[in-house]
Amino acid sequence: MTRDADLPALICELCRQFYGLGWVSGTGGGISIRGESGIFMAPSGVQKERIAPEDVFVLDASDLSGCTVLTPPANSNLRVSECQPLFFNAYRMRDAGAVIHSHSVWAVLAARLFSPRGEPGSFECQGLEMQKGLRGKGCFDTVRIPIIANTPREAQLTESMAGAIEAHPDVDAVLVAGHGVYVWGDTWIKAKTQAECLDYLFRATVELHRLGLQGDA
Amino acid sequence: MTRDADLPALICELCRQFYGLGWVSGTGGGISIRGESGIFMAPSGVQKERIAPEDVFVLDASDLSGCTVLTPPANSNLRVSECQPLFFNAYRMRDAGAVIHSHSVWAVLAARLFSPRGEPGSFECQGLEMQKGLRGKGCFDTVRIPIIANTPREAQLTESMAGAIEAHPDVDAVLVAGHGVYVWGDTWIKAKTQAECLDYLFRATVELHRLGLQGDA
Amino acid sequence: MTRDADLPALICELCRQFYGLGWVSGTGGGISIRGESGIFMAPSGVQKERIAPEDVFVLDASDLSGCTVLTPPANSNLRVSECQPLFFNAYRMRDAGAVIHSHSVWAVLAARLFSPRGEPGSFECQGLEMQKGLRGKGCFDTVRIPIIANTPREAQLTESMAGAIEAHPDVDAVLVAGHGVYVWGDTWIKAKTQAECLDYLFRATVELHRLGLQGDA
Amino acid sequence: MTRDADLPALICELCRQFYGLGWVSGTGGGISIRGESGIFMAPSGVQKERIAPEDVFVLDASDLSGCTVLTPPANSNLRVSECQPLFFNAYRMRDAGAVIHSHSVWAVLAARLFSPRGEPGSFECQGLEMQKGLRGKGCFDTVRIPIIANTPREAQLTESMAGAIEAHPDVDAVLVAGHGVYVWGDTWIKAKTQAECLDYLFRATVELHRLGLQGDA
Fold first, then answer.
1. What's the whole-model pTM score?
2. Are D41 and D8 spatial neighbours (Cβ–Cβ below 8 Å)?
3. What ipTM was predicted for this assembly?
């Protein structure tokens, strides 16, 4: 496991990597990781490829219904991410070790393919090897990721995201229409692996549909 | 705020980043930033991923109808960017802190989608979370970015760009048909955030159209 | 030839490069190289862009029907890659010097184009200069790469992959439907060159089909 | 101008950059630059992102009908690039300062769009700002790049490429069907700028065609 002292730098490094993948451009998206001493989280509305370790918040993991700051960042202008209650859904309901929020255009296109008017629904794929990177899934299973409708403020997604988590105990992700995806896992490595596999599955499914080779979408 | 002494290096670093994003290939595109002592601007027609801090011009911010060089670059062969009067439109009319000019292929495709013959018009999108990265916009608003027709010389765009800025007080960008986009903001961070969000919105809108999932284009 | 002492670091470097190409995201894919002292192989289920030289296994090249570990990695939690019997197919049947396994989305799309239901078949292309990067092929030849059906466990592919290798003596690659591609060569450079050329051919063929410019798919 | 002593390192640096752009994967493509003492050229069939300065050949610029090696690379196994007579076409007929050969998939798709059976023809675009990066072209001109048919051996292209150069005095590039593009310029910067602008124009034209927004292809 990664030591708490290394988590702020790891968060910065992962944010730079996610920027390269197109997941966190325009200050969107982010990542949080649960450590021994609390939940480490990047701040709101900052350039994700440029955050520094001293910008990272540590939040109280024993208060998952609220938001208690244990260690604020050096710069007092920084605010806790708007995603905090959504990240906490996964920590509280699934005992997650890390949560990633991506604005990948593939997530948005995949959600639109299955929910053309942004309504609640579910993304589906099957027959793809990368499904194996998802908890408990094989390449011949049908993977269903819930899609929830977007809301004007990110925090307003909290309840419907919790509903989707409850209704889909077999997957560790929730798509938000027109917005992106939340993905988690027992550790930051599992969360990142699932996020990469899902991004691949979203892209492959969209491309197969575009080629007329996906019968079911 | 970034200190003036650091602005030339910052401009070089951002140009390398924009090159990686496909915004400034083939010497096109660029960025300028307003500092305490003047407006810092990359030179014309140079490889943007290879400019050095000593190549950057400083122009007089008190003469926004003209073009007065306060500090020329070390290399006397370098000329002020052709974009200078267009950058100055945003400094003069909007009190911008920075202006970015991108030749992203997504900007060109998005403009063509809404102005098939390169005529004046406006790009539209709605229902996308990344709209929140634009000043005053929510994810359920309709975003309209003006499109102006291209001209043989870049400086000839000055007047029509000024007209579009005046006619669209709610947005900080102007698309140029077949050419690219000008984006600005109060600071270089706001300008870059809006440029990244717009590039994402252009791409998502083009891809949704291609998938037949965008009813309104 | 690369010295054995340098192979673990080379494997890490190539894995980072393949990650950038989109071949090994989500811990999938990998590479193994035959050295003087044995076969060097990345471990199973780890982030390929982050493996370290001490994570690499050395397996006995004189036991190509089994799997004898000569040197285990420093971390005893690491397991031999699931791909090991598939890699060994190429070492045993073709005397390969290196084998690459890519999950590139282009390989998956190309296989689906020719085997729409994931059934055995073959990918075809012709008239492309990059075919020259494949052993014995010219740009006017027709290249045929066998496609085998995927199986729930990677090791279950061993027999059908061996059959495809035997049936296609003129090529050094096997596509797996919904999964990716195995590519090999006499040296790691030849294997990598063929893997890059094939990825290009998969992409070009898919894109030409999408443009309606490929008569034969 | 770049000094001769710096040209081998510059060629390596540009090859790494071109690899990142997808122009020289699978050992294909390359660049040569004319210096004071001769023509500097990367060797044949090597991984372009990994060549070292000592791998670069220097050829005699006073013998442009032949191929006289002035300085061979340190490694005596390396051979002069197959592209040498094609590079020399541009040096001899146009007094070029540098020639780039790219295998970009966009060049191949663009050529196929205008020559669906690989026959001689010409690529066309108009109305795009990036045309200004080409010698003597404005954004409202129609740009025509000759397309020649591919041949089994690269050297067999010499004559038809020379014919295309003669027939199109207004452009500094020749497309080869199914293969890629040769681009040159008075200096390596001009050659690279034109190569980047052309790659952009190829991509934009293909994408516009795919969107049904290009009336003339």
1. 0.97
2. no
3. 0.97
